[in-house]
Structures are given as structure tokens and as C-alpha cells.
Amino acid sequence: MIASPYLRAAFWMGGSLACMILMTWAGRETTSRLDVFQVMEMRSIIGLLMLYPLVYRAGGLRAMRTRRPLLHVGRNIAHFCGQFTWLLALSMIPLAQVISIEFTAPIWTAILAVTFLGERMTVWKSGAVLVGLLGVLIIVRPGVDSVSTGQLVVLIAAVAFAISYTTTKALTRTDSVVTIIFWMLLIQSLIGLVPAFLVWKTPPHDVWPWIVMIAFGGSYAHYCTARALASADATVVVPMDFLRVPATAALGWLVYSETVDLLTLLGAALILAGNLLNLGGRRPSITPVPDP
Known about the structure:
The chain is an all-alpha fold. Helices cover 75% and strands 0% of the residues. The protein has helices at 5-31, 36-58, 69-90, 95-102, 105-116, 123-140, 149-171, 177-191, 193-199, 208-231, 234-241, 244-256, 262-279.
């Protein structure tokens, strides 16, 4: 067992980073061969099977009972929309742009928390919103370059994830992390059942490993991040997640020969700076970490 809380946090965030890189890579590969609805349905069903050891350890299905089923449904409608648009964007724009714009989700979360949860709009939050929006404008460059559909799609995903984070914050007051992930996979498998059936085709044999990777990465990234936040403050944990931006850019360069221009790097740096400002004065337990 790792004694230092910081080393434990680094260990779990390393696991989260690996899961997210796997999910990003697998998402690009699977959505180029199968419809996004089918990919999401298979991810949810396989993810449920992979989650069962944690469910069993937590006390079985009886321990997954919740007093807030409607909030779980609302949370997962938003998360389903976010994941759909995120996966769609993976096949439309460079990976570095997808992840950079996705990292605006905590900034939108700050706005939603003020609007719906009664939190105060502090100087830190105001600065985070302004800096993050400036970063998005630099990446998207409206009026200079034509705004691509993929950039708008991933921006929609970020807002949807922010809605999901805001409701998750409320759910963590009564439900465990395993319970929240269990209901996420169960509800989203039900939501996507009919759309997946309408576009279903037998996956080629060489696609199955990618499907398993996206199911594993999507399910256990949440768990690893939660364990990291349980080990150390969010001011320690969240900056570790920022490594996902250069790591994803490296994946795009190595595997897909994607290049990253200086303006994209500057925009990403501003978005990450906005996230750091958003941590100022926040309690560790309520700081969301971007995670599809």
C-alpha cells in the first residue's frame, strides 16, 4: 500500500490518464467503423459486466439502491448527449482540439453551479470563465477561420458534461461512486437500446478489441479519478489530469500524423489556466474533473 497521499493520488490519476487515452484512441477507431449509437450501447453493456467486481465488493445489487432515481435519469440523459457528441467529434477534428475544448466543462460547471445550486460567483470563478472562453475563441478563431462543425460538436459535449457534473455533485451527497457509475451504465444502456438497434451491424472481428478498450476505459476512468480525489485535494489532483492534453496530442501525432499549431497550444494553455483559477477557493470535494 502506498503511504504518501500524493503518491496514491498520482498512481490513481495515472490509471485515469491511461484509461482516457485508451478510450480516446478506441473511440476514434470504433466510430470510424461503426455507428456512434452502437458503440455507446456496446460500451455500456460491456462496461456493466466489467463493473460487476466492484458492485459485488460494495455489497451486490442490493447496495446499488438509490433514493434519487430521477436525478440519476436526468444526469445520464445529459451524459449520454455529451458522450455521443464527444465520440462524434473524435472523427471530425484533431484529437488535441477535442480534448482542449472538452476541458472547458469545469468552467461551464461553475456557471451552472451558480445558476442552479446557489453558489457564489467569486472573482476566481469569473476569471476562470473569462480566461477559458478566451482559450476557446483562440482555438475556434471565429471570423478568421471558418468554425468547423467538429469544434461546435465538442463544445456541445463540454456543456452536456457540465450538466452531468453538476448533477453528479448532488448525487455524491447520498450515493457512492460505484452506485453512480452503475446507474450511469444501466440507464445509458436503456436510453441507447432503440437507436443502437436501428443502426446495428455485426462488428468485424478486428473491432472487438477496440470495443473492449472503450468499455474498460470509459468505466474505470471514473473510478480511478474518484480514488485520486479521495487521496488528495483537488488542487493536487486536477492539474495531473491536464497531462491528458499533451498526451492526447502525442497520440494524434504518433498514430494519426496530426499536427498542433501554436494557436491551438495557446488556447489549450488558457483553458487549463482557467481550470486552475476555478480551483481557487473551492472545496476539494466538489471540483469536477473532465471525464467522458
